[in-house]
Amino acid sequence: MATDLSSLAALAADTAHDLTSEAALRGVYATGPGDTSLAKVCDHVHPLYRPYIEAAPFAVLATRGPNGLDTSPRGDGPGFVVVADDKTLLLPDRRGNQRIDSLRNVVHDPHVALLFLIPGVGEALRVNGSARISASPALCASLAVDGKAPASVLVIRVASVFFQCARAVKRSSLWDAAAQIGRDALPSPGLILQTLSESRIDGAAYDAALQARQAATLY
């Protein structure tokens, strides 16, 4: 792979070979999906797919709204996304940063997608559907953790469910402990905040308090 970033940027700026139609795409991906790529798709949570959702402690929620697309990490104990029935998933909105990017998007456009990841498992599970936001006191209370109810719950109507093969996870060595890097190899949240706020935020103080604050405010 080329390592000269200026050359890569120049190549990326060339639009002469952009694929702008399905016909153009099929010119490059001529073989099309095989039977195994199509047969795995269900319009509901099949009994063989349900264990994936119930084992997953992490998912990425994709939404879209007036300002474009957004992806948001969601995580909790395995099964934190509840399979209410084979067409309905419940995603509690736990304590967060109050940006409510995903929820604001759902208000404008109900279409959502979820990508479930399970530690140690190469296959991911993909769910597409539509969502509404419920603040029902009874529903929120039923999904409380440590006595703390979520502020709201995404009630997701399932449109399609299928597994994603393990190639991406294998190429990335995502679950390989030897591939992990130390946290200090990357800029800290405090440094980022101090720099982008032009020192309005004390980065060192933010980092010093971060772990204790997160532990105290998970729910």
From TrEMBL:
InterPro entries: Pyridox_Oxase_FMN-dep (IPR024029), Pyridox_Oxase_N (IPR011576), Split_barrel_FMN-bd (IPR012349). Residues 49-165 form the Pyridoxamine 5'-phosphate oxidase N-terminal domain. Pfam families: PNPOx_N (PF01243). This is Pyridoxamine 5'-phosphate oxidase family protein. It comes from Ideonella lacteola. The lineage of its organism: Bacteria, Pseudomonadati, Pseudomonadota, Betaproteobacteria, Burkholderiales.
